[in-house]
Amino acid sequence: MKTSQLLIPTLREDPGEAETVSHRLMLRAGLIRKTAAGIYTYLPLGLRIIRKIEQIIREEMNRAGAQELLMPIASPAELWKETGRWEHYGKELLRFKDRHERDFCLGPTHEEVITDLFRREVRSYRQLPLNFYQIQTKFRDEIRPRFGLMRGREFIMKDAYSFDNDEAGARVSYQKMYDAYTRIFTRCGLTFRAVEADTGLIGGDVSHEFMVLAETGEATVVYSDQDSYAANIERAEVLPPSDVDDTPLRPLTPVTTPQCRTVDEVTGFLNIPPRQLVKTLVYKANSDTVAVLIRGDHELNEVKLARLLRVTEVQLADPESVSRLTGAPVGFAGPVNLPGARLVADHAVKGMKNVVVGANRADTHYVDANQDRDFTIDQFADLRNAQAGDPSPRGAGSLTLAKGIEVGQVFLLGTKYSKSMTATILDDQGKERLAVMGCYGIGVGRTAAAAIEQNHDDKGIIWPLPIAPFHVHLLPVSQSVKTTEATARLYEELLAGGFEVLWDDRDDRAGVKFNDADLIGAPFQVIVGDKGLADGVVEVKVRRNGSKSRIAPPDVLSHLRKISAES
Ligand code: ATP
Ligand code: MG
User: Fold this and answer.
1) Each residue of 219-238: pLDDT tens digit?
2) How much distance in Å is there from the Cα of 482 to the middle of ligand 1?
3) What separation, in Å, do the N-terminal and C-terminal C-alpha atoms of the chain show?
4) pTM for the complete prediction?
């Protein structure tokens, strides 16, 4: 195509609103424009990239035996009430009423809709396994949409849902999707890692997230430097400590700690290491109040806490509730004499001796507090975040932390949805059985953004060939008849040779064209000028490494074939 036929509004300046490289470059290269917070229009170049990624997804999903369908964006409340998610999903679910006052929502995910279809249309075990997928717009009213397509409110997702006769079958379907995802992200040119994941609002037992490792990632992943363990920090197991502290118990002693509330303030004031303090965090889980004990140098993991308490979300109690519970201002809560709250503690607290805790009195802590003597813990559990250097839960090596962008997630759901919606099939004995499900999502726009995070330099984007909006950017640097004719000939030849070519036919200075070409990031540039043509050559530049070759026009096609096969 010719530049003059496309709207490609490149920007010379960095747009102020963009905080990440991919957001900035998507705006600057004229790929997207914001319509409202978290809601974007895909401009022609941006849409080409989206379609490329969708095509790769489609090919791999089809290859894995999934079948494409398309469900509606609006879904009726009744289905969501059956699974309880009409109540549980919270504000991310955008709800509305139609003209007849019936409740609807914009689909953030489609387990309810597909399970409803399945129970109405599929009867026999002989029809399974089945895997349905769609590539469709989703809406989640995210509290903090940001980073452009990375965390939008309206975004394109590929979602798939598998149905099997039994758990073993479901595991096979899950593995097929896991393998398909591996191929998809590899074909997109991404460096990624599959990590064990929490199942959150979707539910289920087993899950992996596909993480593109990048500094701007919102997720933290941990992985072992020696074995294959890799997990989202939300999920990452922490082994209980193995060392035993056999220091003799000293008597419980209150000490004045004026205005010392944080771990740093208290341990600084008392001149002790943070690991000798146990902090007491007061949480709300639905209507319950829970006090959570964590070693001073550790971080509580709220996802683990929510799991332990079997709720979807926990919230730090507000200052008034903390004061009401402890009789002291925030910052002095402790486990000694704390009726009215269940006490749970991280494994690391077990066996700690002579610790510092809040005294439930203003400006006061206890030193030498001891469990079982001064307070009793109701339950111990793995409740903290893994830290760099922790031993791998698989046994070899220690954990490293890295930032990741979650581009896809696969879930083994089990019967969570088939049970609540009574999606059954008749087995070979003619008996009703619940279908065993899996579900599988990929963020299409987020994948494009992640590709930019991993493939750019200070001049712009460097697209991996399979998802580039065009393979070749053809750049005539003069308006002479000779150059125009040579460009037109190359354009036709390269198109005929199967390349997608963007011809910059604007009457602009060479510098402007070069800057735009580097910004837009087609893998190859072909520069045509009078001087080169006089020597019988054009220049072929590889965007990724900037290398240039002088090639005779009739050889450009074969040269490009050669270097694209190598790239
Ligand atoms: P996150 O934890 O980042 O909010 P999620 O785990 O809620 O995502 P899933 O329900 O697993 O998301 O959705 C499948 C995929 O859809 C994600 O892996 C991600 O690539 C994409 N996705 C989810 N939310 C968004 C969003 N707000 N904007 C863009 N893509 C998204
Ligand atoms: Mg997810």
Assistant:
1) 999 999 999 899 999 999 99
2) 51
3) 23
4) 0.91
